[in-house]
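Morning F.,

Quick status update on the modeling queue. The single chain you submitted on Monday has been processed. Sequence for confirmation:
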Amino acid sequence: MIHSAPSARSKSGVIPLSTPVAPSFGKQRAAFPELVRSCEGRVLSASRYRNGESFFLAIEELRFNDPADLLYHTGIVVQMALSSHLLDVGFDDRWCARNIGLHIGTSLTYANATGLNYQSPELERLAVVLSPYNVWRNPDLHGSRPPAPASLPNIPPLLRDLLDHVRGVTGHSRPRRRKAHG
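Structure tokens below.
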């Protein structure tokens, strides 16, 4: 995996619309919001990071025997980590809910386009399986879920690496060990 975290955030608080997002989103260019960093966004970003760490504890402790539960909780951790970065750089939480939702691949694309620079082929493959991650929690009308893939990456170290990378980019502190969600 290749990761290069930016050395510093924009001090102006505004990320111009000429960010590298334009080429990768084509027609969605008009929907890309102006990014304005705020104290409220920073606090929410830190909260998302801490919640991601908390959900990760259950995965790290290998509490899930059912692959569907593991995938659902993995989706939560990934989305918390990525949304932590997005909120930190100035995305509005409501905009993210409307335009990104539970789609890990979309979240990863926006995060990387705004400075996260997290390149992981394993996460990119997993994002396809996870998006939207609620399919692993909620069965369809017939009571079934999609079949879990036969081959999954080693999820705990993949998530630990992502959380550590987000922590390095955002500057959030790693929380003290707490009780796991899940």
